[in-house]
Design a protein that fits this description.
The structure is a single chain. With about 120 residues, the chain is mainly beta. The protein has a single domain (about 15-120), classed as Sandwich (Immunoglobulin-like), CATH 2.60.40.1220. The protein contains 1 helix and 7 strands; from the N terminus they run H-E-E-E-E-E-E-E. It has a 7-stranded antiparallel sheet with strand order 1-2-5-4-3-6-7, with no helix packed on it. A hairpin with a 3-residue loop joins strand 4 (about 70-80) and strand 5. The model has no long low-confidence stretch (mean pLDDT about 85).
């Protein structure tokens, strides 16, 4: 029940970004982990993974994934359709994202993004 989200703000709000987003193709996946984006009492960074369905499987060698404030992160392909992504550092408290992109032959992008919420530590 998670809807994709494209950031549009001061840094990512120009007309070229808008055109890129509205031309994006679906990145059909299943078995998305973790299912809960709230990382309270969970592994941080989360073990982000998914199984790719549909036509994108043919070009998975070209997938790239990025974590907020960490840049490009390690992507491991397990079998023909499973992708596992590992960020090298824990996410800071607040909202953070993991995004994966795949450029198609026609110049359009497939995009998958997951937003996580890391709670602030409790003070005693």
């Amino acid at each position: 029940m998670y809807l994709p989200r494209f950031a549009f703000n001061e840094a990512f709000g120009d007309i070229q970004r808008f055109r890129l987003a509205i031309r994006a193709l679906p990145f059909k996946v299943s078995d998305l982990t973790p299912a809960d984006p709230y990382l309270k009492n969970k592994q941080n960074p989360p073990p982000f993974g998914f199984t790719v369905d549909g036509e994108a499987v043919k070009r998975l060698s070209r997938i790239a994934c990025y974590a907020t404030r960490q840049g490009k992160v390690n992507v491991e392909r397990l079998g023909e359709r499973r992708i596992e992504v590992r960020a090298p550092k824990a996410f800071p408290p607040g909202r953070t994202r993991m995004n994966c992109t795949l450029l198609e032959k026609n110049g359009r992008w497939r995009w998958l993004g997951m937003q996580y919420l890391v709670p602030k530590p409790q003070r005693n």
